[in-house]
C-alpha cells in the first residue's frame, strides 16, 4: 500500500492504472475553449449539466452565446423559441449575430445585428 | 567533453556553446531534462518565445515547475514533430461551431498524436499547452476533448471523464425544467 509511485517518463497510454485527472477542475479558460468547439446544442444536451463547475463556465461565459446558428432552431415551435430565448439570455444581451436567412421573420439578410441596434419588439 | 578544464574556463566555453545552440533544454517539475528545437519552441509557444528573447533560458535546463515529465515529453515531441511536418493545404473547418473563429482542422499526425494519449496524459498536456501559450497545441487538444463530448448525454460525459455528479436533486430538476426543450429530437 505504501509503495512509492513509480516515476513515469513514458508517453505511452497508461490504460491499466486508474485515471487521476480531475476533469471537473479543468481551468475555466480551457473548458471555455473546448465549449467553443461544440455546437450549442451539444452544450445544452450534455456538457451544461455534467457538474456545477462546468455549468458555471457554460452559463457564465456570454461569449459562448454571442452567435446563434439559426439552422439549429425552428421558430415555428415553442421549443424553438425556448431554445432561442435561453441562448439570448445567456449572451447577456450581447447576442449580435444570427446566421441563416430568416424567411419566416421576413428579415432581408442572413445577418442582423441585435447587439448595437434595438432588438425587434417582442 | 569538458573533462579536465579549469572550472571557469569550462563555464566560459559552455556559455559560448549555449549561445550558438539551436536547441533549448527544459526541465520538468520532477527534474527531467528535455531538448527542443529553439526555432520550434519560439514559434509554437509564446511563453518560451518570450523567455528565449528575454535571455531567461537556463543552459542547465529551464525550470518548468508546473509541468510534469510526461506532459513535457509530449510538448517537446509535438514541437519536434511540428518542426518536421509539412503543413498541408489549410483545411479550414466549414463549421465546427458558429462560435469559433476559423479553425484549421488538426492534421492527420496531430490527430494521431492526441488519439494515442490516455485521458490523464491529455489532461496534463492541455494544461501544459495553456501554461506555455501554445495556441495550436491548445486548439488540437481542446478539439480532441470536445470530440469526446459530442452527442453525449451528461451521464455519458461524466462516465467518459470520470466526473461526479455534484448537483443537488433540486438543482437537477431546475436544469431539467429550464432545458426541457433541449432533450427532444426535432
From TrEMBL, chain A:
This is F-box domain-containing protein. Residues 20-68 form the F-box domain. Residues 1-22 are annotated as: Disordered. Gene3D superfamilies: 1.20.1280.50. InterPro entries: F-box-like_dom_sf, F-box_dom. The lineage of its organism: Eukaryota, Viridiplantae, Streptophyta, Embryophyta, Tracheophyta.
From TrEMBL, chain B:
Gene3D superfamilies: Potassium Channel Kv1.1, Chain A (3.30.710.10). Keywords: Ubl conjugation pathway. InterPro entries: SKP1 (IPR016897), SKP1-like (IPR001232), SKP1-like_dim_sf (IPR036296), SKP1/BTB/POZ_sf (IPR011333), Skp1_comp_dimer (IPR016072), Skp1_comp_POZ (IPR016073). SUPFAM superfamilies: POZ domain (SSF54695), Skp1 dimerisation domain-like (SSF81382). Pathway: Protein modification; protein ubiquitination. Residues 23-84 form the SKP1 component POZ domain. It comes from the Eukaryota. Residues 1-21 are annotated as: Disordered. Residues 136-182 form the SKP1 component dimerisation domain. GO terms for biological process: jasmonic acid mediated signaling pathway; protein ubiquitination; ubiquitin-dependent protein catabolic process. SMART domains: Skp1. Part of a SCF (SKP1-cullin-F-box) protein ligase complex. Belongs to the SKP1 family. Involved in ubiquitination and subsequent proteasomal degradation of target proteins. Together with CUL1, RBX1 and a F-box protein, it forms a SCF E3 ubiquitin ligase complex. The functional specificity of this complex depends on the type of F-box protein. In the SCF complex, it serves as an adapter that links the F-box protein to CUL1. This is SKP1-like protein. It comes from Digitaria exilis. The lineage of its organism: Eukaryota, Viridiplantae, Streptophyta, Embryophyta, Tracheophyta.
Amino acid at each position: 500500500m505504501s509503495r512509492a509511485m513509480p516515476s513515469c517518463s513514458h508517453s505511452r497510454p497508461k490504460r491499466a492504472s486508474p485515471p487521476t485527472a480531475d476533469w471537473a477542475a479543468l481551468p475555466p479558460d480551457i473548458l471555455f475553449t473546448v465549449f467553443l468547439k461544440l455546437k450549442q446544442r451539444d452544450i445544452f444536451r450534455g456538457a451544461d449539466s455534467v457538474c456545477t463547475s462546468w455549468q458555471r463556465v457554460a452559463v457564465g461565459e456570454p461569449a459562448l452565446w454571442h452567435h446563434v446558428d439559426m439552422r439549429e432552431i425552428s421558430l415555428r415551435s415553442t421549443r424553438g423559441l425556448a431554445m432561442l430565448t435561453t441562448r439570448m439570455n445567456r449572451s447577456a444581451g450581447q447576442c449580435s449575430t444570427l446566421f441563416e436567412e430568416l424567411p419566416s421573420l421576413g428579415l432581408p439578410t442572413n445577418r442582423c445585428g441585435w447587439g448595437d441596434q434595438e432588438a425587434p419588439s417582442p | 567533453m569538458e573533462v579536465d578544464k579549469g572550472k571557469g574556463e569550462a563555464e566560459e566555453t559552455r556559455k559560448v556553446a549555449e549561445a550558438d545552440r539551436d536547441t533549448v533544454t527544459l526541465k520538468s517539475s520532477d527534474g527531467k531534462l528535455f531538448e527542443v528545437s529553439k526555432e520550434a519552441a519560439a514559434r509554437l509557444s509564446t511563453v518560451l518565445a518570450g523567455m528565449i528573447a528575454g535571455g531567461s533560458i537556463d543552459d542547465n535546463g529551464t525550470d518548468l515547475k508546473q509541468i510534469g515529465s510526461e506532459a513535457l515529453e509530449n510538448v517537446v515531441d509535438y514541437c519536434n514533430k511540428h518542426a518536421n511536418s509539412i503543413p498541408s493545404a489549410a483545411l479550414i473547418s466549414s463549421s465546427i461551431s458558429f462560435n469559433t473563429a476559423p479553425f484549421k482542422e488538426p492534421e492527420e499526425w496531430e490527430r494521431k498524436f492526441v488519439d494515442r494519449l490516455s485521458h490523464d496524459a491529455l489532461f496534463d498536456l492541455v494544461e501544459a499547452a495553456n501554461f506555455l501559450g501554445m495556441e495550436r497545441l491548445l486548439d488540437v487538444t481542446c478539439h480532441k476533448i470536445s470530440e469526446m463530448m459530442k452527442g453525449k448525454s451528461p451521464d455519458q460525459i461524466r462516465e467518459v471523464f470520470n466526473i461526479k455528479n455534484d448537483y443537488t436533486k433540486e438543482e437537477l430538476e431546475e436544469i431539467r425544467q429550464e432545458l426541457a426543450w433541449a432533450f427532444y429530437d426535432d
